[in-house]
Design goal:
By secondary structure, chain A is mainly α. Chain A is 84% helix and 0% strand. Chain A has 2 domains: 37 residues; 209 residues, MetI-like (MetI-like fold), CATH 1.10.3720. The longest helix of chain A has 38 residues. Chain A starts with a helix and ends with a helix. The chains are: A mainly alpha, B alpha/beta.
């Protein structure tokens, strides 16, 4: 009996989101047709998907540019964030010295630096992945610092009672203890990274998802603009899920 | 190991955490230290384990008197059991028990066998490869006790080892610890605020009082091992319990005034 309910529940868990998806997109499809909304205002989901396939040769290179910007910037950003967090927490004074400014880093939109970055670096991909790196590193750093600071004192005491070296304590207790927080930061950083990439593209340059959406909207070719929006959504979701998946792989055993 | 005797005196700060403490712990015996909170019980353990240094007085293990830098082979004689199991969540139970060996650098099949034996003694074979999150509180505590034994220490220091558990589970674990002790024959020094637990475990109980932390009585417990849980209803046991409770009670009243 209980078992039956469980399988039922499991099926429902999979089906429910699909139903919601159908309602939203089906409703959109129907409403746009029924109320005769002009094509240059909103594109039907079916048209969007159609365009996506038809023009994939043109769309994909732009999408790929954006993906590259996100990935390169993200890797630089989180590496920087994690290493700076470890550096700052390794020393009491270093942490006290920087912690007031860490807040500045996180609340200031890094996008505002893009015009300056353009001045220094030109119009290339460097500007974008620098912007992505700048956006994804503060959240990773803060989260890692929290993780390092919250390592239970009992664990340090254990290491002390075993006369462990500093290095042993670092690798065998500090790092594994902090890893959940590191991943939280990395997961949140994906959101900052994707936003920063498209934002930087909009300000500088004409290739990538951001400028394409802007370009096609100006020419009232909303269906292509929507195709890019869909791609962007797909990238963000996949990216976020991927990091979450790696996190689960590593932490599932706990 | 010959005779273990430890003598320390005043730890002289503005707070006299411990004053003229004299402990004599015979080899392979269990010595309990009982007293109210704040009497410096834990300080004794930390002194022994060299986490802090005494202000004056000497600590002697076997023939070795504690100095500024204590050689590794003396330190290795100690195993430390914490108030909470304190197992690392990213290691399996087996890896947790083996952890101290890894840290001090004990490798090889003979040390693997030590771990296997410990798991067997703790009757944890079935769950040895599981992670702490899937184990019960009692199993975790046993894991914590066994981990302290992984480096084959001769002296176990237990700081309110099962203090965070309910009475029933604690007493059961006390009995299990006694069983392990009879198989492995270490010296155990353990600290508790629970009078019954002290009597149940120890061959000798030191009673401490607070402000300054000092020993007010040394009471040999004349109940033969192996002991079972039912001895707590024994008249002799109850007499000890009454005696120690009174000692602690008097002190408390006199400090309150």
């Amino acid at each position: 009996m209980v078992k039956q309910e469980n399988t039922l529940y499991r099926i429902a868990k999979v089906i429910a989101p699909i139903i919601v998806f159908l309602i939203v997109f089906g409703g959109l499809e129907w409403a746009i047709g029924h109320y005769d909304v002009p094509r240059w205002l909103i594109s039907k989901p079916s048209d969007t998907v159609q365009v996506l396939f038809d023009k994939f040769g043109e769309i994909w290179p732009n999408v790929w540019v954006t993906i590259k910007e996100i990935l390169i910037g993200y890797v630089i950003g989180i590496s920087l964030g994690i290493s700076m967090a470890l550096l700052f927490t390794s020393n009491r004074f270093a942490e006290k010295a920087v912690s007031p400014y860490v807040v500045f880093l996180i609340v200031t939109p890094q996008i505002i630096l893009v015009p300056l970055l353009m001045l220094w670096m030109g119009f290339g991909i460097e500007v974008k992945f620098t912007a992505v790196a700048l956006s994804s590193f503060p959240i990773t750093m803060i989260s890692t610092m929290t993780g390092v600071k919250n390592v239970s004192a009992h664990r340090y005491e254990l290491m002390k009672s075993l006369r462990a070296t500093k290095l042993q304590t670092f690798f065998k207790v500090l790092i594994p203890s902090a890893i959940p927080n590191v991943f939280t930061g990395m997961r949140l950083a994906t959101i900052f990274a994707t936003t920063a990439a498209v934002g930087a593209e909009l300000i500088s340059g004409n290739i990538g998802i951001g400028p394409q959406i802007s370009y096609y909207t100006e020419f009232m070719q909303v269906d292509i603009a929507f195709a890019y929006v869909y791609m962007m959504m797909l990238i963000s979701v996949l990216f976020y899920t991927l990091i979450g998946f790696i996190e689960n792989m590593i932490l599932k055993r706990r | 190991m010959k005779n273990v005797s430890k003598v320390f005196q005043t730890r002289r700060q503005t707070i006299h955490a411990l004053q003229d403490i004299n402990l004599n712990v015979p080899e392979k015996s269990i010595v309990g230290i009982v007293g109210p909170s704040g009497c410096g019980k834990s300080t004794i353990i930390r002194l022994l384990n060299d986490i802090i240094k005494p202000t004056s007085g000497d600590i002697v293990v076997d023939d070795y008197t504690y100095e500024a830098k204590i050689p590794a082979d003396v330190i290795r004689k100690f195993g430390f059991i914490f108030q909470r199991p304190n197992l690392l969540p990213w290691l399996t139970l087996r890896e947790n028990i083996q952890f101290p060996q890894k840290i001090v650098g004990l490798k090889g099949p003979e040390w693997d066998r030590v771990v296997d034996d410990l798991i067997k003694i703790g009757r944890l074979e079935d769950v040895a490869d599981q992670y702490p999150s899937s184990l019960s509180g009692g199993m975790l505590q046993r894991g914590g006790v066994l981990r302290a034994m992984a480096t084959r220490p001769e002296i176990l220091l237990m700081d309110e080892p099962f203090g965070s558990l309910d009475d029933m589970l604690r007493e059961q674990l006390d009995i299990e610890t006694l069983e392990i002790w009879q198989k492995l024959e270490q010296t155990i020094i353990f600290i508790t605020h629970n009078v019954r637990e002290a009597i149940l475990m120890s061959g000798k109980v030191y009673v401490m009082a607070t402000e300054p932390g000092r020993i007010i009585a040394e009471i040999p417990i004349d109940i033969p091992y192996p002991r079972e849980l039912k001895i707590i209803a024994d008249p002799k046991f109850l007499e000890y319990e009454r005696q120690i409770t009174n000692l602690i009670g008097e002190i408390d009243l006199s400090t309150i005034k």
